[in-house]
Design a protein that fits this description.
- By secondary structure, the protein is of the alpha+beta class.
- It has one domain: Aminopeptidase, CATH 3.40.630.30.
- It has a nine-stranded mixed beta sheet, sandwiched between helices.
- A hairpin with a 5-residue loop joins strand 7 and strand 8.
- The longest helix has 16 residues.
């Protein structure tokens, strides 16, 4: 799958991308946002297995995990993806961007392309996202893209230091997306 925007394009990871993905996944600023700070850092073998599993999940039409690649340089700047439920016509989406690429609007463009794919190509009715209470950047992005803040699960996640944090749940429907659609990506080019 490939989605093409103005500043970035999204494409499925290849085993050859494993080392570049590890740099992002194991970054100390990124790991807490993904909820994996307490887990051991991933190694090259783990990452290659993960990439192979993603290819299987794509074929089974369960999930798409995509690299976010800067068009100008072809550098991997992050990852995003969706896990979808065909029966209920909904998807859960997520994103991570390497810190040196924060504040460049790459996340906004990537999520906008994912939404276009969810609602136009996959014909889903609902997209769901989550953000920890300390992840102001993600909460602001979801709000700016028209997601509704549906609920906060208070103190539901245990942090490495023993303290607890809350998890915010957001959603956007197909109808809401149509009325709040951004001009960032005129039309996402979805290729299977």
């Amino acid at each position: 799958m490939k989605l093409v925007g103005d500043k970035v394009y999204l494409q499925s990871p290849k085993v050859a991308d494993a080392e570049r993905i590890l740099v992002i996944i194991n970054d100390q600023k990124v790991r807490p946002m993904l909820g994996i700070k307490n887990q051991p850092k991933r190694n090259l073998q783990d990452e290659r297995k993960w990439i192979r599993r993603q290819a299987t999940r794509r074929r089974l039409k369960e999930a798409f995990n995509l690299l976010i690649i800067e068009k100008e340089t072809d550098k991997i700047v992050g990852m995003c993806g969706l896990h979808y439920d065909k029966y209920h016509k909904k998807a859960d989406i997520g994103i991570s961007i390497a810190p040196k690429f924060w504040n460049k609007k790459y996340g906004r463009e990537a999520i906008t392309m994912l939404l276009c794919c969810c609602f136009k190509k996959l014909e889903l009715d609902l997209v769901i996202a989550q953000a920890y209470d300390f992840n102001d950047r993600s909460k602001s992005l979801l709000d700016a893209l028209g997601f509704n803040h549906d609920a906060t699960l208070r103190k539901c996640c245990l942090k490495k230091d023993g303290s607890r944090c809350s998890l915010n749940h957001f959603s956007i429907t197909k109808e809401e997306h149509k009325s709040k659609c951004s001009d960032i990506v005129k039309e996402a080019e979805c290729q299977q």
